[in-house]
């Protein structure tokens, strides 16, 4: 009489590594898409906190801390990418970066197609708490970002991410598990410097419709980068906190093994 053994394969969703990648990756993609769409709003950082704008004159321009709303989320994107790099390596970051660019492009394509739809008459003019609003004009104005801005943002994001993962890997290669703050914050500071200027150069300097002077790009780029430096440093404790949470979730043995494998994946 023969005995038949039945093996039960566990679901991929029972694997902690898979669940972690899905959770972090989902947030990474969603955060980038949200940052792209809210980036159309420009706000005053000083007035938001109840202060008068700086109004600092420099090279014929009045400098104030005016930022896009997307600037609130983009530093978090690079901090999360460093966490992904730590546990899933450069390959993990690159995969999620390409997926993010694909989904952002898809989102903008859907918006452009939606703008071509003919609205019903009763929807166009709406009475709101701010008074009568032309909803069609508002929708097209808010969501219809210029093509140059979209292209500049996507290219800046791609280049910035590739630089970030490369620097992160090289620093960790020489320092090992020590100096998390150096590889995380250091890689972000360099990649954000490149990111800040690429998007401005493409969207406003090379754009025939705007044709900004180079000094305007440099000044606004430095204002934008200064903010990102402050945010990168401020988010360093958050990165340590995420590592602690993830290590506790995975367990010390699995977390150590994943970090070791991450350095082998290109």
Task: Summarize the entry for a quick read.
The protein is mainly α and 266 residues long. The protein is built from ten helices and six strands; from the N terminus they run H-E-H-E-E-E-H-H-E-E-H-H-H-H-H-H.
Oligomer: single chain
The poorly predicted ranges are 1-8
CATH architecture: Orthogonal Bundle
In round numbers, the mean pLDDT is 87
Q: What is the name of the CATH topology?
A: Arp2/3 complex 21 kDa subunit ARPC3
Number of helices: 10
Task: Summarize the structure in words.
- The protein is mainly alpha-helical.
- It has a single domain, classed as Arp2/3 complex 21 kDa subunit ARPC3.
- It has 10 helices and 6 strands, in the order αβαβββααββαααααα.
- It has helices at residues 16-38, 45-48, 74-115, 121-124, 135-143, 147-175, 180-205, 214-234, 236-250, 252-262; strands at residues 42-44, 56-58, 61-63, 66-68, 125-128, 131-134.
- The chain has a two-stranded antiparallel ribbon with strand order 1-4.
- The longest helix has 42 residues, at 74-115.
- The chain starts with 15 loop residues before the first helix and ends with a helix.
- The model is unreliable at 1-8 (pLDDT under 50).
Topology:
Blueprint: H1 16-38, E1 42-44, H2 45-48, E2 56-58, E3 61-63, E4 66-68, H3 74-115, H4 121-124, E5 125-128, E6 131-134, H5 135-143, H6 147-175, H7 180-205, H8 214-234, H9 236-250, H10 252-262
Antiparallel strand pairs: 1-4, 2-3, 5-6
Helix pairs in contact: 1-3, 3-5, 3-6, 3-7, 3-9, 3-10, 6-7, 7-8, 9-10
Keyphrases for this structure?
266 residues, Arp2/3 complex 21 kDa subunit ARPC3, two-stranded antiparallel sheet, 6 strands, disordered N terminus
